[in-house]
Amino acid sequence: MDSSLLLTQWHNFFAIYAFSLFFVTSNKLGPRKEKLVKIIEVLEEAAKRVHKNVKHLAGTKESGTDHGMGAGGDISRRIDIVAEKTVLDYLREINFECTVFGEECGMVELSPNPKGFIIMDAIDGSTNAVRGLPFFCCSLAYTPEDKLSSVTDGVIMDLHNGDLYSASKGKGAYMNGKKIHVHKEKPIYFVVGVDISGISPDVLPQLAPILSASNHVRHFGAVALELAIFARGLVDVFVDLRRKLRITDVAAGYLIALEAGGYVVDENGMPLDSNLSYDKRISFIAAANEETLADVRKKLGLSAKI
Ligand code: IPD
Ligand code: CA
After folding, report:
1. I want to staple 209 with a disulfide (CB 3.0 to 4.6 A). Which of 36, 59, 158, 299 is the partner?
2. Looking at the structure, do residues 214 and 290 belong to the same domain, yes or no?
């Protein structure tokens, strides 16, 4: 092999590896000693702790107690607060030097010297969680920059059954440690996922050609987990054109879907992106392959070309 090519490959490998490690200052080791941890492992551990702390709360009356308006603009419920506190406590415990961008708690600086952001929707699908409908999750993503497209690591934990979905940029997507892929072949049943909750009457007609063309439309009520099951190949396309989602809802699912081989674009068919803002609202189309994306684009009146 050409020696300059070999050198470039080594350089890339080293850069990716170094990037996925994070310095954590351990109290036990003393203030100056630092150890390296993988960011994805931090997110996974945080999500596992959320699962442990909320699994007995879901579906109970207590889970829905009103805790006032959260940073994202919705009422925070007891289960949201318990889940967020679990993540924040863990990150503090390991001295993870970051700023948390949380759906309920807002921006929380955990270090005067943050090295990046954790985008946290500690409970996605709060309505399902409170009512006891078995479809809700914890969604955590890490980005070194203030941008969705810069997310390097994402974890989604199904808080009903404990399935753990994860991805790090360039390394593929996993479910419980096994690689997952979107459904590339022609499926027996073509399943269309949508979110139409609270959709405005102006936007609904746009979706009509997609809804009426399918006998297999599904709507589960937790966008992050819906992206995870899309990434796993259980759904062929997922469309949310409501302009209601926040970056907290999609950050982890976006990376997991891309790393599983999916296409994720905005409502105009352009690459999806957003900064970390509570005001910015997101719509997206996730499609398992080019053909499906072209078909959806056509139905939405966008040019079929990607
Ligand atoms: C909600 C869920 C739901 C979607 C809402 C989101 P939350 O997230 O993803 O499916 O329809 O727009 O806000 O509030 O339960 O974290
Ligand atoms: Ca939430």
Report:
1. 299
2. yes
Q: Could you read off the pLDDT of 64-75 as tens digits, one per residue?
A: 888 888 887 788
Q: Is residue 304 part of a domain?
A: no
> Could you tell me if the CB of 288 is within 6 A of ligand 1?
no
Cβ 269 vs Cβ 297: under 8 Å: yes
Please identify every residue whose CB atom is under 5 Å from ligand 2, which is an ion.
Answer: 103, 121, 123, 126
Residue whose Cα lies nearest atom 15 of ligand 1: it is 125
- Report whether residue 228 contacts ligand 1, using a CB cutoff of 6 Å: no
Query: Domain boundary residue among 133, 153, 179?
Result: 179
Assess whether the C-beta atom of 247 lies below 6 angstroms from ligand 1: no
Q: Do residues 174 and 50 both lie within one domain? A: yes
Q: What is the pLDDT of residues 19-65, one digit of tens each?
A: 456 767 655 444 545 566 899 999 999 999 999 999 999 999 988 88
| Residue 233: both structure tokens together | 């190949």
Number of domains comprising the chain: 2
Owning domain of residue 201: 192-299
